[in-house]
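User: My notes are a mess, but here's the protein and flavin-adenine dinucleotide's SMILES. Can you give me a structure?
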Amino acid sequence: MRVDHPTISFEFFPPKSPEGEASLFAAISELDSISPNFVSITYGAGGSTRERTIKIACDIYEKTGYRTIAHLTCVGATKLEVHEILQQFEQAGITNILALRGDPAQGPAAPWVTTPGGFTHAEELVEMAQSFGSFEIGVAAFPDLHPAATGFDQGIEVLLRKEQLGATFAVTQFVFQPDSYSRLICELAERGSALTVYPGIMPVTSYRQFTRMLDMANGEIPDSMMAQFEKYRNDPDSTRELGIEIATRVSEEVLDAGAEGLHFYTLNSAKSTLEVVKRLGVRPAERA
Ligand SMILES: Cc1cc2nc3c(=O)[nH]c(=O)nc-3n(C[C@H](O)[C@H](O)[C@H](O)COP(=O)(O)OP(=O)(O)OC[C@H]3O[C@@H](n4cnc5c(N)ncnc54)[C@H](O)[C@@H]3O)c2cc1C
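Assistant: No problem, the inputs look usable. Here's the predicted complex:
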């Protein structure tokens, strides 16, 4: 059943330059009209943006008061180092984290090699974060299966275990096949899970950037949809419009399937996300 006022939230990545930071804050100003329920800040591949993730998360929180979720991965770090980062988050007033394993440098399908003294699975990070007693913990979910998962049931088991260890919500990989999302939340509900699973919505704005992200995430998109994007690969305006149309359609379908909210992969830009929310005509839930 569809909720009356879905939550709306945004993912941003930590900019690399002062110009990038200025343009991120300009996008945040534009998006403020939607009054997001939360925003999340990614953690660079291989843990490369640790300081920037913390700084941007703190800056956004200070300037906007939004509930701000910092992503954290276990790549290339010992348990002791991860513990120190969690302490750093706590001291910086960041009380919401997305606890992730991260990917090997060769991509998500490459075999994971545990750093000596480090974690093997994200559930261990959930457990450590929970032991602080001060974090609200979210985790990653994969409606189209994680590339290394052995099957749908295993993905469900992993989420249930993370919930038992303290996670209260999950954010999904970008969704282009709403049926997969629907199947995931139905199965979790049947198994007694109370996890809120926010579907990741990506309004595609650039063919090259999109195909790179699909590759990096090993994401799934129906062939017919991919063919539509390919048709406009050298036509940025049509790509942007198609991205908005598809994101709007997918959003409608996941809301119909029972999603409590929509989490937009904004790529630090406001326009397409604003347009999707406008076309949906949703009035977002009040901020907590
Ligand atoms: C919403 C979202 C945000 C993300 N943000 C970032 C980011 O900011 N930075 C970044 O680097 N990456 C990010 N990622 C990518 C993510 O780190 C990778 O997809 C990673 O491969 C999986 O992370 P996980 O937390 O699900 O890992 P895990 O839960 O450890 O799962 C990894 C694999 O191991 C399997 N598995 C898990 N537990 C067990 C177990 N106990 N026994 C056997 N198998 C197990 C799972 O089925 C899966 O195949 C994000 C992904 C999503 C969906």
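The chain has one domain: 7-280.
User: Great, I'll file this with my notes.
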